[in-house]
Amino acid sequence: MSRMVLIRDFWDYLKVRKKYWLLPIIIMLLLLGLLLIFTQGSALSPFIYVLF
Questions:
Q1: Which residues, 6 or more positions from 14, have their beta carbon under 8 angstroms from its beta carbon?
Q2: What is the Cα–Cα distance from 4 to 2, expressed in whole angstroms?
Q3: Which structural domain range is residue 40 located in?
Q4: Beta-carbon neighbour count of residue 16 at 10 Å?
Q5: Which of 22, 37, 46, 47 is paired with 6 by a 20 to 30 Å CA distance?
Q6: What count of Cα atoms within 13 Å lies in the side-chain half-sphere of residue 42?
Q7: For 14-31, what is each residue's pLDDT tens digit?
Q8: Model pTM?
Q9: What's the rounded Cα separation, in Å, for the pair 19 and 27?
Q10: CB 35 within 8 A of CB 52
């Protein structure tokens, strides 16, 4: 429940302050974090780390 409140508050902040340009940056950071978490112990790790 608290996670949904945090997301809703963040969305309200973006709407009120007109900071929509932050949304793509945050989405890309979340996707990058998920990619690193899910590929941490897999056979794809050497290929992912080459990209960075």
A1: 20, 22, 23
A2: 5
A3: 2-51
A4: 8
A5: 37
A6: 10
A7: 889 988 888 899 999 999
A8: 0.59
A9: 14
A10: no
In the numeric block, which tokens belong to residue 8?
């809703």
Q: Which contacts of 39-47 are long-range, i.e. CB under 8 A and separated by 24 or more positions?
A: none
Domain count, the chain: 1
Question: What are 3's two structure tokens?
Answer: 């996670």
Tell me, letter by letter, the H, E, C secondary structure of the chain: CHHHHHHHHHHHHHHHHCCCCHHHHHHHHHHHHHHHHHCCCCCCHHHHHHHC
Distance between CA atoms of residues 35 and 24, nearest Å: 16
C-alpha span between 24 and 43 (Å, rounded): 29
3-12: long-range contacts, CB 8 A cutoff, minimum separation 24? none
- Token pair in block for residue 12: 């309200």
